[in-house]
Amino acid sequence: MRGYVKRVSQKFNKLSNEQLISLLDDMVEENENLYSILECISAGLLILDNDFYLQQSNKIVESRLSFSVYLDDPKATTVPIWEIMEDQEIGDYFKKCAEKGITNTTEDFTVMTSGGSVRFLTITMTPLMHDGQTTGKIILVRDVTEKKNQEVLLHRMENMANLTNLAAGMAHEIKNPLGAISIHIQLIQKALEKARENRNILPDKKFVEDHVDVVNDEIDHLNKLIMDFLFAVRPINAQLELKKPAALIQNIVDFFTPEFHDNGINVKLIIKDSDSRLLLDEKLLRDIIMNLAQNALAAIKQKKADEATSDDYTGEFTIECASDDNKYYIIISDNGCGMKNETVSKIFEPYFTTKANGTGLGMTMVYKIVKEFSGDIHVESQEGKGTVFTMQFPLKHDGTLAIGN
């Protein structure tokens, strides 16, 4: 039809009224077909000119993005698209593309619905071409929430596969306190039986109290084991949103730095990538960083307490945020006492701990949270030298989390 109209336009002055009316009817019909096609597209669509003024859109885009005016209102075409965007982050994204001349890119966003739920959007921009020239921008807005939720569910199912190991570890941990409780109760029972045989004269008060104190301590220990176990096996209720990890980590470091300084430990934060965003739960990211920071603090203090440590030894704790083409890295290192190879190989196993009062679930939770963020974590350590934890998360080439097409 396009070629036909072009040829007819060259002979426009020679056409009769009937031919012109027929041509107009054909053009109207084709235009309606194009509108129908646009409305049938499952993704939201915005067509902009080179100055980012709205030229055309479909209805579904208004269910994906929020605008201050209806897009069929003539006012929507009188200002750049970012001036009618209600989501400031997405509006700033369009404005940045306009200022930097970006015409081909993909970016991921999280938006909050009126009902309070989080939706995940992928916005793709491609150039609109005509006769070899860029005449505007085509914006596709896809809702990838269900796809992302399926990925999260898959991760949770993988985590639940470790439940057998957790249960076996829990059974082993329960045996000792139950055994201690049984022994001390038997001792109390024997003392009471002996008292009855000896004119009901009870043993010394301290004798009974000592046994009861042990029983109560072991009951408290059991309760803590059970609570930790439930915490370990319960699915993580992560509220994932696109956040800049560097900014979040900066706030966390500011929080614990005074404690490190009080212990004579230098804290260094190196941010090589401050702009990339990841799908994170801010609270859970804080749990990761604080857990690793406290472990580093303990390792450095232990090394300082070592008699063989030189007087000029200074504790160092470093967090680095960096990225390459498709990965975002959070690297946490210290120059503390380090770990043996055997400890390194078991560091993420449930109930494995080298601390006298440790539960052995802290690093298990760190591992679970990193996996919930679609990431991975590994550790390198040298006894007497220090430890390095490296977390990596997938990025698209444009610096956003890879969550599929």
Task: Map the helices and strands.
Layout (H helix, E strand, L loop, with lengths): L1 H8 L7 H24 L3 E6 L4 E4 L3 H4 L23 H13 L4 E8 L5 E13 L2 E11 L1 H16 L2 H35 L7 H29 L7 E3 L1 H18 L2 E7 L6 E3 L1 H24 L9 E9 L3 E8 L6 H6 L15 H11 L3 E7 L3 E9 L11
Parallel strand pairs: 7-9
Antiparallel strand pairs: 1-2, 1-5, 3-4, 4-5, 6-8, 9-10, 10-12, 11-12
Helix pairs in contact: 6-7, 8-9, 9-11
Verbal overview:
By secondary structure, this protein is of the alpha+beta class. It is 46% helix and 22% strand. The protein is built from 11 helices and 12 strands. It has helices spanning 2-9, 17-40, 61-64, 88-100, 145-160, 163-197, 205-233, 245-262, 282-305, 341-346, 362-372, and strands at 44-49, 54-57, 105-112, 118-130, 133-143, 241-243, 265-271, 278-280, 315-323, 327-334, 376-382, 386-394. The strands form 3 sheets. The protein has a 5-stranded antiparallel β-sheet with strand order 2-1-5-4-3. Helix 6 runs antiparallel to helix 7 (205-233) and helix 8 packs parallel to helix 9. The longest helix has 35 residues, at 163-197. Mean pLDDT is 80; it is low at 397-405.
Q: Which structural traits does this protein have?
A:
5-stranded antiparallel beta sheet; alpha+beta; disordered C terminus; 12 strands; 405 residues
